């Protein structure tokens, strides 16, 4: 066999150098920009049947651990299908009240109204926003909002396109005129359709800042026009 016809031994390939990827700088922790203290100790969180209800366990656990808040949760029947009342009860250390399931001697909305220094309604669906704007009280959450005397924060969670409707805009404007603290909407995808747009609930840091601002004036009361 000639030297030319001999099969050349395969070259040993050098180990491929791994490209060095620069370390990504850690993102700024948004929760570092929230207030160190809140001007309240007892907070009632009421929830209607929007998908944002699934965020409440994480929000509640963080609020209690960070600020030592005493929490109470109230759910519509639709909300109770989206978030576990047992999970919320464990976080609050007190029973979660679901519309139509309370058998207390004193109506649930009165007990909650007496307990809370502030009321948060999150998420507030377009249906609930309309009821609050018209003074309708046909379930636990809407009745609680009607009789609550302290600062009331409404955190809308709307479907895509809803904010473009004049009726929704009128309802939100009326709530503001009536003394409710209506949180601004966020841009985000719809959990149902995946479509992005204006209508999502605020994220937790923005919510905490808004809550602190709403509760800063202890003399503020729902029903006092702005």
UniProtKB/TrEMBL annotation:
Annotated Flavoprotein domain residues: 42-203
Q: Which GO terms describe its biological process?
A: coenzyme A biosynthetic process
For the region Disordered, give the residue spans.
Answer: 1-22
Which keywords accompany this UniProt record? Membrane, Transmembrane, Transmembrane helix
Q: Which Pfam families does its entry note?
A: Flavoprotein
KW Transmembrane (keyword) present: yes
Task: Please list the residue ranges that the record marks as compositionally biased, kind Basic residues.
Answer: 11-22
- Segments crossing the lipid bilayer: 43-62
* Skewed-composition ranges (Low complexity): 1-10
Q: Which GO terms describe its cellular component?
A: phosphopantothenoylcysteine decarboxylase complex
Q: What InterPro entries has UniProt attached to this entry?
A: Flavin_trans-like, Flavoprotein
| GO MF entry, a single one | phosphopantothenoylcysteine decarboxylase activity
Instruction: Please report the name of this protein according to its UniProt entry.
Output: Flavoprotein
